[in-house]
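Page header: ASSEMBLY MODEL / two components / 895 residues total.
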Amino acid sequence: MPHPSHPAPRELLKLVVVGHVDHGKSTIVGRLLYDTDSLPEGKLEELQALASRRDMALEWSFVLDAFQAERDQAVTIDTTQIRFKTARRDYVIIDAPGHREFLKNMVSGAAEADAAVLVIDAAEGVREQSRRHGYLLHLLGVRQVAVAINKMDLVDHDGARFAQVAQEVSEYLAGIGVEPAFLVPIAAREGDNVAAASPRFDWYEGPSLLEALDRFHAVTQPGLQPLRLPIQDVYHFDQRRILVGRVESGVLRVGDTVLFSPSNKTARVRSFEAWNAEPPVEAHAGQSVGLTLEEPLFLERGEMLSHPEAAPQLTTVLRATLFWLGRTPLAEGQGLTLKLGTARYAVEVASIEQAIDTDSLERRQAQEVPRDGIAEVVLRSRALIALDEAAALQRTGRFVLLDGSETVGGGLISMEGYPDQRRVMAVRASNLFSVEHAVTREQRWARNRHRGGVIWLTGLSGAGKSTVAMALERRLFERGYHVYVLDGDNVRRGLNANLGFSPDDRAENIRRVGEAAALFADAGAICITAFISPYQSDRDRARTAAERLVPGGFHEVFVAADLETCEKRDPKGLYKRARAGEIEDFTGVSAPYEAPATPDLSLDTAALDVEAACEALFGYVTAKFALEATD
Amino acid sequence: MDRLDQLEAHSIYILREAYAQVEPLSMLWSLGKDSNVMVWLARKAFFGRVPFPVILLDTGNELDEVYAFRDEYVGKWGLSYVNAACPPLEETDPSLPLNSRHAARKTLGLKRILAEQGFRGVFLGIRRDEQALRGKERVFSPRDAEGAWNYKEQPAEFWDHYKTELPPGAHLRIHPLLAWTEIDIWRYIEREDIPVVPLYFARDGWRYRSLGEKDITRPIRSDAASIAEIIAELEVTRQPERAGRTMDHDSEDSFERLRASGYM
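Prediction written out in full:
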């Protein structure tokens, strides 16, 4: 059994130093090591000898430059970890390089930091990489930031210049939701205000850089949040089946009922398991644990364990702000592997919504994301992904992207406008037995003299779905077809009277319409539906419902009119109200519309009038619903 | 969780990530304090077992106490032990300084055993604070078929997502102790009561701070005869840990050359 060590290990704060190239990051780090008496014996002499051998002034940055190649290029290539200590605690500094193309390495270092120093040259002020690195700190989740305004000796230690640069950087950071805890004037080469206050800054009343760092907090693992435990593996070394993984947030106790996602299975925790230690009765965020279950479930790596009442969302579509590290630009339609927790999912880039310019913070339309670019994108997967929103749960609200075997990006998840699909997927009535009908599908078709099926119209509000649906119904009816239209009016009054307009309720609305349409189709009728149905996943589910009963019987028809046209028509005045903010989550305005990737038929209602559109659709139906010799 | 709990939990996470995704695996067991901690952590991660072979890169030139320790603990810890004999000095790169050539024998021994047994992943107990070049390492560090380390093109590694896929012939060096310091190691050895080779404890004013082969490792001046005394000594020392490892100090770039060509 382990026994306690006498003096407890000291607290460790992981610090990253970022900023524009040549603004003095490595110099600050070298100087911090010197001032805290942390240089290894002989290092100062070594540096002095090196400097005199090369006939140069002593460069504090050489402390970090372990590689020969780096010294020659005088640029820090990779992240390096260096330690120093103060009376309060230990520090490890992750020095991040400033060259643009080295974003990959900066991300690798900065992602694990508790706090950051953003270095700005007092003479040059905020530059491109200052902004970029500030933005990335925010994306990577580093929330404690001190700004060191360096090289104050070059501006004669002028308080007015300091105030000017301080305001410039504060304004930028405020724009991305970062509030620097400290803004410190320093001259790192001379050590002014690095460790101790300097008389040259008699106009400055705040702490020195080192005192500022000592006021930060080492980030502790979140405990009061919902439980998340991604399953790493299942071991059967002996008679036990042990699930292993690390608690990312929350607390897990023996006896808890837990839910696994995406499989949606539940079980009770029987025990924790441990070797050479007393097994715990509860596990907290940050702990690597092994546990057994009361029920013998078949589970695999990649499942996310949670409590059932605070489960992660399940979805096949997600929105994210991502940074792209790939050698070639990210493009729409590109296939990638998404890693979240211990799970992997094949995903496709459904759309690049906007690129973010870290210089101006402007958002603009973009066809692709260049290397080192930042953008908001929509990703789609075939399988259900278990995830959280980054704003709510940082560690399970972010993911890494792979292209083949290469890590090419990372992203933070935002699900605004997308419904949780867990409720919609759950088949609660599992104790049902199917009863064979005494009338076959073919007998119904023969009596009707046409096949049954679903004509699923999708498109923006105002595209003309209902108009076209009613015209088509009239036309088919007159020709003897058994036909019926489902639209918002007849469905929302009864079948879906209990549903509102939240993303979840909309998804459920469409699920019920899909199931009802499938029954009409099975009964031998042609069911025309007229719903915006903005999500491909919802339409795919409707297809699955219909084709389970009538194979080949689902026809997705894209009523394609662009947003501008629809908004101009605005027959019900809805766009106007949405623009005025009176309607939330309005498709096309404040919620996404996902156009069908491969519709069975596409009608351009911006160009065709109702008659022509109806004619085209009528031609399609008579061809597709005709009986064949084999029917 | 204190600092040691955090380090332990993270190392166990790394060991399990590798075990779930990389096959076949092995672990280098140099018999030094760090690799003993690594074996201990593996037993924690896998509930008492080490479910892959542990390898000694054997130059035939280790200190006697090191061999004695091995003979005792292979059985006591239930290890699946592989002795990888290192090729002789003549086969090493003659352009390297002599001490580095002694070290390079291990590089060749590792290359040979990886090729023979086809391991796709090997755990190593290196730490970032040991040496500046090791400070640049990734937790999962890919090597090409020659074992070479391309330090300018290392994969992105963040949010505890590691590179686990590799082209044929390549392998992964996996470093579960990368974030530990020398003092962390000793505190953990003390807390867990992990056995170590007695050469670490001072006798007659000398002790080994880092264990290597007979020819290229020197003891340091020390009176630290217990773990507590070693920790107290490390709290104040200005000497680098590997001061007694002569191969690090042959020339300005000797360790860089060793590592680029596949040294641990």
